[in-house]
Amino acid sequence: MARNRAVLLDLEQKAQNISGKELFDFIDKSTALLMDTMFDTYGVVFAGAYATSWLNKNIEKWLGEKNAADTLAQSVANNITSEMGLELSHVSDVVRKYPEVLQYLENPNDDSFFEDLAREYVSSGSGKC
Fold first, then answer.
1. Which residues contact 120 (CB under 8 A, 6 or more apart)?
2. What is the CA 86 to chain-centroid distance, rounded?
3. pLDDT for 62-72, tens place per residue?
4. Whether the Cβ atoms of residue 117 and residue 101 lie closer than 8 Å to each other
5. Rg of the Cα trace of the chain?
6. Contact, 33 vs 44, CB < 8 A?
7. Burial class (CB in 10 A: 0-12, 13-18, 19+), 69
8. Closest CA to 37 of 79, 75, 65, 7
9. Would the pLDDT of 127 be above 60?
10. What's residue 121's pLDDT?
11. What is d(CA 88, CA 6) in angstroms, rounded to the nearest whole number?
């Protein structure tokens, strides 16, 4: 990932100083470099998918546990889904401290959700939240 970011950043910086036909030529030449970089990434993705499938199949056979590799993948660094889940768990920890907010979340008003929360639980100064 760091290498992909470095390649993209380098190409962006070079492209900023080019315009017109030269820019189109630069993009055309850069496409090959990007494809090579992405191909390496896809190789890693396919290897990961194969390993996940192998783990799931064998752990289920050995231990009877289905989709065990999914649990392992939840803590992988740079996995946006995992990171979002962890952040949401932090939000949940905070919200649990405020029963009024929990009660509102049971039956929210979709049309005025954020306004209701701000009015009732933040702006009121009642110390609820």
1. 100, 104, 128
2. 11
3. 999 998 887 77
4. yes
5. 24
6. no
7. buried
8. 7
9. no
10. 66
11. 30
What is d(CA 75, CA 85) in angstroms, rounded to the nearest whole number?
Answer: 10
What is the C-alpha to C-alpha distance for residues 53 and 121, in angstroms, rounded to an integer? Answer: 46
CA-CA distances (angstroms) from residue 6 to 10, 91, 129? 6, 33, 43
Tokens of 86: 């962890």
Write out the DSSP string of 45-91: HHHHHHHHHHHHHHHHHHH--TTHHHHHHTT-TT-HHHHHHHHHHHH
Residue 122 banded pLDDT, cuts 50, 70, 90:
low
String of DSSP letters for 103-125: HHHHS--GGGHHHHHIIIIITT-
On the CB side of 81, CA atoms within 13 Å amount to 4
pLDDT in tens, 7-48: 889 999 999 999 988 988 898 888 888 877 777 667 777 888
